[in-house]
Amino acid sequence: MDLVVVENLRKFLGGRLVLDNISFVVDEGEAFCLLGPNGAGKTTTVRVLLGIYRPDSGRVMVKGLDVHENLSEVKRVIGYLPETPSLYDRLTVYRNLEFYGHLFDIRGGELDSRIREVSRLLGIEDRLNELVGRLSKGLRQRVAIARAILNNPEILILDQPTSDLDPGMAHSIRSTIRELNTDGGLTLIVCTHNLQEAEFICSKVAIINRGRVVGYGDIKELKRRLVKIHKFHIETLDPIRNKVHLFSELDYVIGAEVTSDYSVIVSLNRKDLISDLITLMISRGLRIFEVRYVEPSLEDVYLDLVGGHGEA
Ligand SMILES: Nc1ncnc2c1ncn2[C@@H]1O[C@H](COP(=O)(O)OP(=O)(O)OP(=O)(O)O)[C@@H](O)[C@H]1O
Ligand SMILES: [Mg+2]
After folding, report:
1. pLDDT tens across 67-105, in order?
2. 257 and 135 belong to one structural domain
3. What is residue 301's predicted lDDT score, i.e. its pLDDT?
4. CA 192 to ligand 2 centroid distance, Å
5. Could you tell me if residue 191 is left (phi over 0), alpha (psi between -120 and 50 degrees) or otherwise beta?
6. Is any ligand 1 atom within 6 A of the Cβ of residue 14?
């Protein structure tokens, strides 16, 4: 089922068009990524989804309901981790969660068992009596995620969940987030510019640049479809180092990187021309041992679509 549908969303902020016809669909149970550089429009999109901003045109539906006409119903099914979550430093973890629970009208025994449940999921059950102000950044982020799922949402929106964390902590939090999806069945929308994060947690992506969707779909499929440079790893039985000049004669070979005396990685602008290349190599006395297609990475697609920079 389509849980979230964003259709032709346009939004002006400060007199500037910051979302330009954004469309995407998130299915139930999916881990979806809004991927894009700084200033691309990820947070603005999420704010429209949460009903904080009204769209100037287009619409946003959650569970078949227009967000702006059904705000209270929609808020009940969404959990949200903002880019910079604010917690009460002078309260304990438990009191922070309790305070938030009251905002959702969860009380008494139900609230206590919910706090214990989310703390267990986030691995902070033994920290409940500590002051939030004394926690490390990683643990604070775990508390903030616990808070975001306190209302037992069906959709969890995470805006840059690991941007300020060291690699080890970032990895451990990504694993926890992934489990919320794979084991807990939570539908995720993750905003990030971190390609590793996108690939680790999510299976589907909308790549946003300057307010537009420039790439959209299943990550694996997108990599195959959009990559314009195809890399092959070729191993030979004859030394190749002194034969690389062969490749510079061919206009379909974009690059050749010799990786050992008997191996080279060639980049072609057309995948099917690998057979021509191999035929040529054999005709020039190079016996072939192995040819392997190098799977494109999400980074290849991203850099191709977005370039090395976001906003000009
Ligand atoms: N309140 C505002 N008034 C005017 N312009 C804004 C406002 N909020 C955001 N913008 C602009 O809208 C564009 C998109 O911003 P947004 O915060 O959605 O990007 P983002 O993809 O979340 O970036 P980041 O990765 O830096 O968080 C940016 O150019 C930003 O400067
Ligand atoms: Mg943002």
Report:
1. 999 999 999 999 999 999 999 999 999 999 999 999 999
2. no
3. 83
4. 8
5. beta
6. yes
